[in-house]
Amino acid sequence: MELKGKEVLQATKEQIWSLLMDPVTLAKITPGISRLELVEEDVYDAIAEIKIGPVKGTFGGKLRLKDKDQPNSFSLIVDQKSKIGNVNAKVDIALDTASAYESTISFDGKANMSGVLASKGARVMSGVASSLTKQFFAALRNEIASTEFEDKRSNIETDPNIKESSNKSTMTHDIELIINGETHSITVESRSVLANVIREQLRLTGTHIGCDTSSCGACTVLIDGKAIKSCTMLAVQAEGLAITTVEGLSENGMMHPIQEGFKEEHGLQCGFCTPGMMMTSIDLLHRNSNPNESEIREALEGNFCRCTGYHNIVRAVQYAAEKM
Ligand code: FES
Ligand code: FES
């Protein structure tokens, strides 16, 4: 199973490094950890309780930090055993300066599982991994917010493109977003979420915001052809990528087959969820030109419609599959 991602944190690389290398903080922010003890340099004995659906496992084993290049990178080696299976993983972690007050933390690695864990399937396990990762970064963000760092601005590389406002918590960036083939040069705050920028700054209001928990899918757009919930991405992260919103689907006044499908098969009622449904469906149809009903329902599980039973939505996607 691949473990890959990137997060933006409001701290310098040195500050993040100091938190990650502190055993007390690490124990506090790592989900499920009941014991984390430094047994030799860069080697921890760890016990963690992880729940996978109805199955609960107590994991015990070692966590090792390797190839440390302070404050830029290190590798995390996980070797954990439990009754429900073992986990071995190696994840490379890299810190980069994003702006005067922000850094990115990227992780890239692989995990191998055995036993019941392996039989749960890659999809379930990657869901568990993504939820644990979310919890970890949420806790790390809280820790950053509550820590009084000695020097808020130590070793900061200042990017000339970054403007500081008089209010230090508001940093702005001049960026170019390519949406539906058109380049928009705009100024956004570091914290601006892509969904809000698309709707409020660029007034492309077909992209909706239906929740604040990244669960409804109403904000889904295509980014480099992949369906992405635009509420889970910062606008600055989307710079230079090809974004398609529902407004970009029709060509020369002709509806896209998926739009036609929703119209012909009555796939929408209030329509709030429809743009997100369509973007997710297009991603599916690019990967699978003839999906069956269960594949369509599985692809759309991250898109909630509050007013239909999905029957007509499935038919709409099947209609588009025939036309595309
Ligand atoms: S607004 Fe993005 S998932 Fe709900
Ligand atoms: S059509 Fe109304 S929420 Fe889906």
Provide a descriptive summary of the structure in words.
The chain has 324 residues and is α+β, with helices and mostly antiparallel strands. It folds into two domains: 2-146, START domain (Alpha-D-Glucose-1,6-Bisphosphate, Chain A, domain 4), CATH 3.30.530; 172-323, Roll (Ubiquitin-like (UB roll)), CATH 3.10.20.30. 29% of the residues lie in helices and 33% in strands. A seven-stranded antiparallel sheet has the order 1-7-6-5-4-3-2. A hairpin with a 2-residue loop joins strand 11 (220-223) and strand 12. Helix 6 (257-264) packs across helix 9 and helix 7 (274-287) packs across helix 9. It is globular. The two termini are 32 Å apart. Bound molecules: FE2/S2 (inorganic) cluster (2 copies). One FE2/S2 (inorganic) cluster is lined by residues 195, 209-211, 214-219, 229, 231.
**CATH architecture heading of the largest domain:** Roll
Q: Which stretches are poorly predicted, pLDDT < 50 over at least 5 residues?
A: 151-159, 164-169
Sheet with most strands:
7 strands, antiparallel
Q: Largest beta sheet: what is the strand line-up?
A: 1-7-6-5-4-3-2
Beta strand count: 13
